[in-house]
Amino acid sequence: MPELPDISVYIDSLEARIAGRRLERIRIVSPFVVRSVEPAPEVLEGLRVERLERLGKRIAIGFEQDLWLVLHLMIAGRLRWRARWPQRPGRQTAALLGFDNGVLALTEAGTKKRASIHVVRGRDGLAEHDRGGLEVLEASPQAFAAALTRRRHTLKRALTDPRILSGIGNAYSDEILHRARLSPVRLTDALDAGALERLYEACRCVLGEWTERLRAESAGGFPEKVTAFREGMAVHGRYGEPCPVCGTKIQRIRYAANETNYCPRCQTGGRVLADRSLSRLLKRDWPRTIDELERRESGHRRADAELEPRATKGEDPGTGRARRAAKPEAAESGRREVTSRPDDTRVAKGRRRRPE
Length: 356
Ligand SMILES: [Zn+2]
Known about the structure:
Blueprint: H1 4-18, E1 23-28, E2 49-55, E3 58-63, E4 67-72, E5 77-82, E6 93-99, E7 102-108, E8 116-121, H2 122-127, H3 141-149, H4 155-160, H5 170-180, H6 193-218, E9 251-255, E10 258-262, H7 276-281, H8 290-297, H9 301-307, H10 326-335, H11 342-352
Helix pairs in contact: 1-6, 5-6
């Protein structure tokens, strides 16, 4: 899922192209992509773009008359910039916005259509799409510490929860935790002042550096290669490869469709955390798929539920797959003699008895 650095670069590119321009024509190719009822997207035709803003992982395009088009790319949604209106929209095209200088296309690969467009009126309408997470690049260390430690969570969950921090997902949270030399399953209330400071600095450095890097890569062009797996990432998407700091093989914790990557030497004191079995212990405090988390909390549940019925009992909520595989995997992780940190396990069990 495009995160803060990707979204920021998208917004730069859009600002250079559509700020001040008039939307001549809008076409919703995939009717499912529009999740709001009123105002209809067509009301934007003829209006000028006044501003662009990032709202967590969303892109908000502000038009005249205080109307906003809010785009959420979710996992597979991408933006494309084309010179002219296509004769026939491509198979992945969900929507087209035509300006006098080019066409902005929202595309979505795959069969799970999750990318969304909302058209809303005014700041009040926009506020409904603001999950309230702290903007870490603008926040003081004190505000960061307060937001992060308000509730007890694993660090992985706290970093990726859009109600706690804005714009951070699975990829950059892995990178941030590696930079801060902290375990993804460390609990937020177990952080001392030094660890909190390292984490704050790591968030700012990783997000700042990657934004600069992606900006330089797109070099004034429109960002076409937006991916969660970037060349140059330290741990994310690098399972089994050497840590760039210490050379140890990068490990992973898998949960549903999600995978967390970490370096056992830099981050967990040399311990390899049990993969699937740990995931099961942590399930209450683990981001499932990030989009699942967002969907669950978004307040637009009904519209989404209609599109994608929730997993039924006995199915994995992240993938919809039956949970039959659980037992053999548990045996496998036992055989591998991987152990989780004793204290993490105990805490995880404690959480289990205390439903949220
Ligand atoms: Zn390392």
